[in-house]
């Protein structure tokens, strides 16, 4: 199982790296998953992530308290709102698809907003 967790950790690191440059792909959730995988497979890479100057503080805060910084919450609201608006205007979806996508996005937003603030 260590090998599986290690490979998953590397995959999540790659997705997080891509997400750092693409506005539609989040970075931190993938790094949280990578940290969890490395905790089970590679203490060295887990330590590297937790001590990273840019991402380490957010990862440690999440691990210790399950908290999300207020700035990140505001960015999530802005990003999800913009994404839904672009979906709505760009694709002219039917009411069922629009409600489904809206419910999915809203559930993610509710999750983010109900976490403690850092």
Summarize the structure.
The chain is mainly α.
How would you describe this protein?
It is a single chain. 76% of the residues lie in helices and 0% in strands. With 118 residues, the protein is mostly helical. Helix 1 runs antiparallel to helix 2 (28-39) and helix 5 packs antiparallel against helix 6. The chain has helices at residues 2-19, 28-39, 43-50, 56-65, 70-91, 95-114. The mean pLDDT is 91. The protein has 6 helices and no strands.
Main features:
118 residues; mainly alpha; 76% helix
> How far apart are the termini?
33 Å
Q: Any low-confidence stretches, pLDDT <50, length ≥5? A: none
Q: Quickly count the helices.
A: 6
Strand content: under 5%
Biggest sheet: strands, sense, closure?
none
Mean pLDDT score, rounded?
91
